[in-house]
């Protein structure tokens, strides 16, 4: 609040100062009146929330030898074929993302974001390139 008030004293507009601080103008005005947090928050935890042992079981399955190279979109159907249901596919993704296990998990090399090096010719006839490009023209070929 002090930073927004200081910015307004130095000539900044109220909305711009709030926007720079990533605070809504209505929120700032509410804070000027009363700074206590009046949010209630959740009263109880959801009934379908997974217990810690269920989460650990999902992590254990995903890191097992059989499923370690597969994404959750393939793990869940394979488990269903075996008659096992641990959680939904989206729950698998959430748990793996929270545990930072959703990185590259396959045997293949990780996708490289590096661009290929440019070819540089240091002498004549060193680099040849070809391109098949369709150029529209009025000439018809038989």
Features:
39% helix, 0% strand
Please explain how this structure is put together.
- The chain is mainly alpha-helical and 142 residues long.
- Among the domains are: 2-33, no CATH class; 52-98.
- It has 6 helices and no strands.
- The chain has helices at 2-9, 14-20, 25-33, 52-62, 72-81, 89-98.
- The mean pLDDT is 86.
Summarize the structure.
The chain is built from 6 helices and no strands. The chain is mainly α.
Give the topology, please.
Layout (H helix, E strand, L loop, with lengths): L1 H8 L4 H7 L4 H9 L18 H11 L9 H10 L7 H10 L44
Low-confidence stretches: none
Main pleated-sheet profile: none
Q: In which range does the helix fraction lie?
A: 25-40%
Order of helices and strands: HHHHHH
The residue-averaged pLDDT reads 86
Please count the beta strands (DSSP E, at least 2 residues each).
0
Global geometry: flat
Question: What percentage of amino acids are in beta strands?
Answer: under 5%
Distance between the termini: 78 Å
User: Helical element count?
Assistant: 6
Q: Determine Rg (CA atoms, Å).
A: 29 Å
Secondary-structure class: mainly alpha
